[in-house]
Design goal:
mainly alpha; 174 residues
């Protein structure tokens, strides 16, 4: 039978699950307050909080270390722990961010949609052709396939419609 002092010491330390919940709250609060974690890189960084609630001891330190380890928290590029994000999600965000450095943003607020209804078997090839014909491509900002056909976004819908119609009126199509 364990000695009373050993038994009471166990009751003074939080369970691993309790430590995990506290760590999650700390990191969530950090994220909500500052938008990112800039204080916690490892288990020892949480000890100040735990030691304000529980007596400092080697077993408390081990329990906090076990909790951080079992949570399998992802670290950002600077080594800070992240909550609610898997390594795969973080890697995808980093790749997305790197690719966005090569991109520019362009609003389509001044564009109007024009839908070209066409059967499904022809959509992909027609979209490809619309991108390779300079006289047509210069009339729209972007285009993509939809369930009904190809949706163009253009600053001048009348010109685009006129140009599209002109291709229907060619002698080869009559």
């Amino acid at each position: 039978m364990p000695s009373p002092s050993h038994s009471s010491a166990n009751h003074k330390n939080p369970s691993r699950k309790t430590c995990e919940q506290i760590i999650e709250r700390i990191l969530t609060t950090e994220l909500e307050s500052y938008g990112t974690n800039r204080h916690f890189k490892q288990a020892s960084d949480f000890l100040v909080y735990f030691e304000s609630l529980y007596p400092a001891s080697a077993s408390l330190t081990k329990q906090v270390q076990r909790a951080v380890s079992s949570m399998q928290l992802t670290k950002d590029k600077d080594g800070y722990l992240m909550i609610h994000k898997t390594k795969e999600e973080y890697q995808a965000e980093q790749e997305f961010s790197n690719l966005l450095e090569r991109a520019s943003f362009y609003g389509l607020n001044d564009c109007a949609p024009v839908l070209l209804k066409i059967p499904a078997p022809y959509r992909t090839h027609l979209l490809y052709l619309s991108e390779t014909i300079p006289a047509l491509h210069e009339l729209y900002e972007t285009a993509f396939e939809t369930a009904e056909g190809i949706l163009f976004y253009t600053k001048d819908p009348e010109k685009l419609l006129q140009k599209l119609s002109s291709y229907q009126d060619t002698p080869e199509n009559n």
